[in-house]
Design brief:
202 residues, mainly alpha, 8 helices, elongated
């Protein structure tokens, strides 16, 4: 039943040769490039920002990185325990984005961006989490639309992200302070010159 629903939802979302070329091009940009917001925003939050907020921002970055590491590990384990072919491997629908014929469930892109969005919802602000969740949903849609993922692959990514954030929160309570202080010391050592120049925050 779940597999039938998966196929039916895919058929509703997947583009066809009759789909507008501008929409396929937009979906390609979203599917391939929009995920770069994750490293760019993480670096920006660590290096810059109001002095009174930098510590909280850096803790957010560490917690989010830990959550992504957990969720991607979980995604890898699930993918190997329960392998699932991509739509174009099964000969289902149309594929507009070249991709290796590896396991599709859960989606790595979905796992990373949903973990990132959930982290901001849980540990930052509602508005920033909502914006990132909208971006996550756009990425999820685009990869189904272009034929490289099933809808359930994205649901799997969301669930992996949620588990990653919950695990990160538990680990943070036990080891967070020590890990953050060590990373902060390492950062100050490696970035001593840019910090002295005032190019980045101490």
């Amino acid at each position: 039943m779940l597999e039938t629903l998966n196929h039916e939802l895919f058929a509703l979302i997947n583009a066809t040769p009759a789909s507008a070329q501008w929409l396929i091009a937009l979906a390609t940009f979203i599917a391939r490039d929009l995920i770069s917001i994750v490293p760019f925003l993480a670096v920006a939050l660590w290096l810059w920002g109001p002095k009174q907020h930098v510590c909280a921002q850096r803790q957010l970055v560490v917690k989010t990185a830990l959550a992504i590491a957990v969720s991607l590990t979980l995604s890898w384990v699930i993918g190997h325990l329960f392998p699932h072919d991509r739509p174009f491997v099964e000969g289902m629908g149309y594929n507009f984005l070249p991709h290796a014929a590896d396991d599709s469930f859960p989606s790595d892109h979905g796992t990373v961006i949903f973990t990132f969005a959930l982290a901001f919802l849980l540990w930052h602000r509602l508005w920033s989490g909502a914006v990132l969740m909208a971006i996550a949903c756009a990425i999820a849609w685009s990869r189904v639309y272009l034929g490289v993922h099933w809808p359930m692959d994205m649901l799997g990514g969301f669930i992996s992200g949620l588990i990653g954030c919950l695990t990160s929160q538990m680990l943070w309570h036990r080891f967070g302070a020590q890990v953050y202080l060590r990373l902060q010391s390492l950062y100050r050592m490696l970035f001593s010159l840019p910090i002295r120049k005032g190019w980045v925050r101490d």
